[in-house]
Amino acid sequence: MSNVTVIGTQWGDEGKGKIVDWLASRADIVVRFQGGHNAGHTLVVGDQTYKLSLLPSGLVRGKTGVIGNGVVVDPEAFLAEVERVTAQGLTVSPETLWVADNAALILPVHVATDRAREAARGDRKIGTTGRGIGPAYEDKVARRAIRLCDLAEEETLDWKLDELLLHHNTLLAGLGAPTFTKQALKDHIARLAPRILPYGCTAWARLDEARRSGARILFEGAQAVMLDVDHGTYPFVTSSNTVAAVAASGSGVGPAHVGFVLGIAKAYCTRVGEGPFPSELFDVNGTTLGQRGHEFGTNTGRPRRCGWFDAVLVRQAVKVGGVNGIALTKLDVLDGFDEIKICTGYTLDGAAVSVFPSSPAAQKRVKPVFETIQGWKETTFGARSWADLPAQAIKYIRRIEELIEAPVTLLSTSPERDDTILMRDPFED
Ligand code: GDP
Ligand code: IMO
Ligand code: MG
Known about the structure:
The protein is an alpha/beta fold and 429 residues long. It is 31% helix and 19% strand. It has twelve helices and 18 strands. The protein has helices at 16-23, 75-87, 108-121, 133-141, 154-174, 182-196, 203-212, 245-249, 284-292, 311-321, 360-365, 391-404; strands spanning 4-8, 29-32, 41-45, 48-52, 64-67, 97-100, 200-201, 217-220, 260-266, 269-271, 305-307, 309-310, 325-329, 339-348, 351-353, 367-374, 408-412, 420-422. Strand 5 (64-67), helix 2 (75-87) and strand 6 (97-100) form a beta-alpha-beta unit. Helix 3 (108-121) packs across helix 4 and helix 3 packs parallel to helix 5 (154-174). The mean pLDDT is 97. The active site is at 13 (proton acceptor), 41 (proton donor), 140. Belongs to the adenylosuccinate synthetase family.
């Protein structure tokens, strides 16, 4: 009996939240291990829609949720989200939601630095979510982060705030942005600390105990491999590693407990924010994908750029992410196209290449090579069994499997929780 780790294989928004929610019925604990509230995971259950950014999707099923040490936690966003889902009828308490007390915090200085830097970049902006994610991870690596456990210790907090402000105020002043006073940050923290501290705990120890007593753990990735700080389209990436290996280090379990790695891929491709996107469409097909797929950012409402399925990138994500099987989502969005294309390779300055190059200049110059597949007229929307799928849709899935060198083990055919087809149970692998 294995654990399962879910990761995105494209540029995010593949439907990880829906799949995690669906799989959570088979799990006891759902763990977020990287990223922060830059994520936006949408779950549709009957007439309720849940939009989660920081909280693990398993809470919707009443499962224990864990925010691991690898996550950067904005206390204000955390408490607001707890309040929001509570108003939607979920029960969230320190018994059902554990936050690693060694997780680094996002404070208003991080948000200010993120935004000021993006503004200063002008045309070369990354298109971040503006939520302070990058600066918070930088502070963690630079050993000046304030962590959840520090909120309980006034003395520690005092000198840590000095160090944090020295860094950020210098930067903000240089960028011509307003700086922060120590008192303002102290007030911010004083307002939130008593409410978030009860959730703090030694999460790794609780996970260890739960695992040893037989609990099944589902690790919920945020973002995706093409946004991974090492393996993605650097510098147009997020500031964490998003590959499955991080489920272990980002929650404090050993690498043997990551279990089956389920990569999530859309049946086409989207990206929000700046950066290279070889199979991007600027024609009516792109508009159709965007409209049918409701491709607007969950958090920011920004329209997502749309393109055909890029098999080169997903194959790369399968390999560097350690993916054992793929959940292919939003197949229904392709219903009714006369022809569907798959990017099977690139040319770079006229020469064929079969991997995405590392250099940003080369990433910008690659041209996609497309293979055309006949579409299908029947609807797959809401299909719940393989037998309900048109032959051409099955052909499309089989071709994708061949190109990405991984099996499609799960299919999703609508936003609704139960419109899902299971071919192979990842917990049984
Ligand atoms: P995540 O960030 O990977 O969790 O994905 P998001 O929730 O940001 O974006 C995926 C969107 O597609 C959400 O609005 C989902 O409700 C929706 N969705 C998920 N799976 C399907 C599917 O199979 N078909 C359709 N039409 N929509 C889906
Ligand atoms: P989920 O979990 C899509 C993108 C941002 C930007 C880049 C860096 O919903 O799939 P950041 O604020 O992280 O420094 O921004 O990463 N980005 C996402 N795009 N889905 C996400 O999460 C994303 N999280 C960050 O748009 O291009
Ligand atoms: Mg999302």
